[in-house]
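For homework, think about our next protein:
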Amino acid sequence: MNLPGKIAIMGGGSWATALAKIVLSTQDSINWYMRRQDQVDDFIKMGHNPGYLSAVKFDTDKINFYTDINEVIQDSDTLIFATPSPFLKQHLMKVTTPLNEKFIISAIKGIVPDENMLIADYFAEYYNVPMENIAVIGGPCHAEEIALERLSYITLACSNIEHAKAISSVFQNPYLNNSCCKDVRGIEYASVLKNVYAIVAGICHGMKYGDNFLAVFICNAIEEMRNFLNSVHSLERDVTDSVYLGDLLVTAYSRFSRNRTFGTMIGKGYSVKIAQLEMEMIAEGYYGTKCIHEINERYKVKMPILDALYDILYERKSPTTIIRQLTETFK
């Protein structure tokens, strides 16, 4: 496989826009799939994404836009998926073009609902993509800071480390560094869990818990993450690496974190439903909480933070009561 070949961005949101900016810093052109023709038309007319990261200007002569998912797949070699995980199945249902000879990069920090499957596993099982041709992007890397060209770091994971290294140059520029590893499943699970923990951090923030408590919370969260990862995918890893702990920290603390924002609204007294309606973007951790909770019914890892959030989001229990009980388990 000759990587990266022609690269396509699959998605039209903020993270997809940030990834397009990154890829165009190293490649002469890209293909870009967006679902709506009106979004493409406005993008070409204005020279920026009309709905997301609108301050980022693009040379549209370097972009081949598509609204037909099969056409963009046919014309591309490497597909970078950056759609919200709850909508991935909906997009892929239209796919009739084989994916098994494409290189898939998942930039989706979520899990496929209903199936409770990691993104890489979903592509492997339902679209016959070899695992060695699937990579994931992880790490503390908010789209808004990429837009501002603030120094960031990502990790590329692939079971074939040579494939990860072959595509790494695409994601290397003056404001972005990267590293490579083989922990595809560990990074995918960590990316789901950090969203879960960020919602809880937001709830605590909304309830006026301070920085002292949040530091203790993060210590307990990373330990819970370590225990879960070691149970579901035993592999030598250091959870203090930036792709695990770093991503957790930035998602739990940053004002750009939609999961923290979602949690903060709940902590301030919003109902779950109203908080979802007020959000302009998807809080992946809402879906991730249910998925991981159901997956953990098989592994039975002790996860008091996950269980607490599940009770708040899905059992409609009082955040004040649940968080108070949770604090009693911390050390």
Notes: The two ends are 50 Å apart (CA to CA). The longest helix spans residues 184-206. The longest strand covers residues 152-158.
